[in-house]
Amino acid sequence: MVFVGLTGSARQGCGRPPFALTTGVLARPLPSLALFAAGLLATACARDEVSHFTVPKGPAAPAAPAGLAEPPGGSPMTAPGARPPPPGMEGDVAPPPKPESGLTWSLPKGWTEKREGGMRYATLGVPVKGRIDGSVVVLPGPAGGELQNVNRWRSQIGLPPIDEAALARSRQAVKSRAGTLSLYDFSSDGEKKSRVVAGLLESGGSTWFVKLTGDAEAVASARPEFLSLLESLRLE
Fold first, then answer.
1. pLDDT tens sequence across 131-144
2. Mapping DSSP to helix (H, G, I), strand (E, B) and coil, where does residue 236 land?
3. Most buried one in 85, 89, 118, 136, CB count within 10 A?
């Protein structure tokens, strides 16, 4: 068989001194061996020539808009342009202003009272059987108007609203030392009836509501003494 000598030298730019590669191979496989040797030389050069590279910095990530930044404490994010909750809607509802004059009364025998403060001025304990609630509520100014409050009481026992003409027909007058009250008395429909009896008094820049509500029979039992309490009302 005939062998052919192959001599190659590395490029000067590879950083290595020139060297000779001599081998004996069959004449026919010469092209394959030559390619293999060339690949080795290229790999060796590439390892020396590529020592490091630098990646250009891209543009800095944009800062989050001020409206989307999470506030301290981890509270939910607020959309840009969102308005803050109105005062009194974040769990810190302020009590109504103190009325200019306090409302007092004479309790019927066996009744009790608990002064609450705030809108619910007092809770009345009524000694009758059945479900019943007695309350004294004070609100500043007209408190939405008489018709609106009466319709709210009616809705509490499942009755539809009424208009001004029906309001006038339903109103009764009760005189007291604190002034004349508008008295309303409504009973619900159905087999299990509910009833509300309420007196409304506007005085001293405030509106006072003195009310009984509950089972129709319980309210009926307490109604005469409740009227006596309304007549005893006075401002001090």
1. 999 999 999 988 88
2. coil
3. 136
